[in-house]
UniProtKB/TrEMBL annotation:
Family named by the database record: Belongs to the zinc-containing alcohol dehydrogenase family. Class-III subfamily.
RNA-binding keyword on record: no
Subunit structure: Homodimer.
UniProt EC number: 1.1.1.1
InterPro entries named in the record: ADH-like_C, ADH-like_N, ADH_Zn_CS, GroES-like_sf, NAD(P)-bd_dom_sf
Species of the source: Cucumis melo var. makuwa
Lineage: Eukaryota, Viridiplantae, Streptophyta, Embryophyta, Tracheophyta
Protein name, per record: alcohol dehydrogenase
PROSITE patterns: ADH_ZINC (PS00059)
Alphabetized Gene3D superfamilies for the sequence: Medium-chain alcohol dehydrogenases, catalytic domain, NAD(P)-binding Rossmann-like Domain
MF term (GO), any: zinc ion binding
GO biological process, one term: formaldehyde catabolic process
Names of the cofactor(s): Zn(2+)
Reactions it catalyzes: a primary alcohol + NAD(+) = an aldehyde + NADH + H(+); a secondary alcohol + NAD(+) = a ketone + NADH + H(+)
Amino acid sequence: MEVVSLVNGCSGNTAGKVIICKAAVAWGPGEPLVIEQVRVDPPQKMEVRVKILFTSICHTDLSAWKGENESQRAYPRIFGHEAVGIVESVGEGVTEVAAGDHVIPLFNGECGVCRCCKNPNTNSCEKLGVDPTKSTMILDGKTRFTTADERRQPIYHFLNTSTFSEFTVLDSACVVKIDSEAPIKKMTLLSCGLSTGVGAAWNTANVEAGSTVAIFGLGAVGLAVAEGARARGASKIIGVDVNPQKSIIGKQLGITDFINPRDSDKPVHEKIMEITDGGVDYSFECVGNLEVLRTAFLSTYIGYGTTIMLGIHTSPKLLPLHPMELFSGRKVVASVFGGFKGRTQLPHFAKQCMEGVVKLDEFITHELPFDKINDAFQLLMDGKSLRCLLQI
Ligand SMILES: NC(=O)c1ccc[n+]([C@@H]2O[C@H](COP(=O)([O-])OP(=O)(O)OC[C@H]3O[C@@H](n4cnc5c(N)ncnc54)[C@H](O)[C@@H]3O)[C@@H](O)[C@H]2O)c1
Ligand SMILES: *[C@@H]1O[C@H](CO)[C@@H](O)[C@H](O)[C@H]1NC(C)=O
Ligand SMILES: [Zn+2]
Ligand SMILES: [Zn+2]
C-alpha cells in the first residue's frame, strides 16, 4: 500500500494511502505520552479518516491514562476523545460525510438502526455505544494505527475516537457533521464535556425554571451542568468542590452558592438542606467518587429529588445506597454524553451554542501546542484548567 509521510508537512492526495503523522502515544499506565510518528491506515468499509485540528483532555482520558481500571488497560494506546476535525477521506459505503466536512468525533456512537437508536428515550447504541474496555475497530477487530518503525506494532484505540493524533480513523457512526460556519475551535467542547454537562441538565434531569440544583465537582462537566441549569432558569445552583479556586470560575458559569466540604465539619448535605429548606430538586455527581455520590443523594428533597450520576467509577464497588432508601421517592439515574443522540441531536445543540444559549469561552482556560500535551494533563490533574485546547 502506498504511504505518505506528513512529517515534513507535505500533503497532496492522501486518500487510500497510509499516512505517517504525529500522535501522542501512551506506552504504559501513567507514563508521559510520547509524541512520535505513527502509521494511520486508510478508512475501511463504513469508516472515516479525520484530520484532527483541536483536541482537549477530559478527566476520562486522565483516568484511562493512569490505568485506574485494570480491565481497560491496552498499550501502546492513543487516548483522547474530545476534538474537532476535517474529514480527510471516507471508506466504502459512507454517504453522510465527505472529505472536507467539519466533524465532531463521538465517543458514544449512534448507528441509527439498532433498537436503542430507534428508541427516543435513550442515547445508548447497541453497536457503537461507549465501552472503554474496547480498543480495536468493530469491523475486523484490528487497529488502524501501527508504529512507524520496522516492528509495525499495533497501537490501540480509545473510546472509538483516539483524538491525540494528527489523523484518526473512526466508525462513521462516531462522527457528526457540523456547520462549516461554526467557530471550529470552540466546537471541540461539544465533543464531550460541554454536551455531557448541559445535556445532563436538559435531557436527563429536565431542569425546570425555578428549581434548585446542587453540583458536586466543578470541572468542565460540572460547570457545564451549571450553565445548562442557568439557561433553564434554575433559581439556585449550589456548587460543591474541594478546590477553593472553583468558586471563582463557578460564579462566571451559573453557580449561585459555593460550598467547600473542607471548610467546616458540618456534613455538606446538611448545609444544602439548610440553604434550600429541605433539599434540592436535582443533584449531579461530576467527580466519580462514591462518598460524593452518597452525599449528592442525601442532598435532594425527600419524596422526589433526583440524583444524576455523571462521574466515572473505576472501582468495582457497588452503589452506596440501601435499596429501601429509594422508597423515599428519591431517584438515582446515570447520564452518558448528556443523553444526547450524537448524530441526530448535536447539530441543533451546536446551533444553540452559537446563539449564546450557554457560554463556551469560559471553558477554554488554556491553549497549548500539541507537543505540550503532558503539560495539559498536569494542568487538569492540578485542578488549574477546565479545558486546555491543543492545536494539532
Ligand atoms: N458521563 C459521561 O458521559 C462523562 C463524560 C465526561 C466526563 N465524565 C466524568 O465526569 C467526571 C468529571 O470530569 P471533568 O473532566 O469535569 O473532571 P475535572 O477533573 O475537570 O473535575 C473534577 C472536579 O471534581 C473536584 N473534586 C474532586 N474530589 C472532590 C470531592 N471529594 N468533592 C467535591 N469535588 C471534588 C475536583 O476538584 C475538580 O474540580 C469524571 O469522572 C469524568 O470521567 C463522564
Ligand atoms: C467502538 O465501540 C464499540 C462498541 O462499544 C466496540 O465494539 C468497538 O470495539 C469500539 N472500537 C474502537 C476502535 O474503540
Ligand atoms: Zn469526556
Ligand atoms: Zn445504534
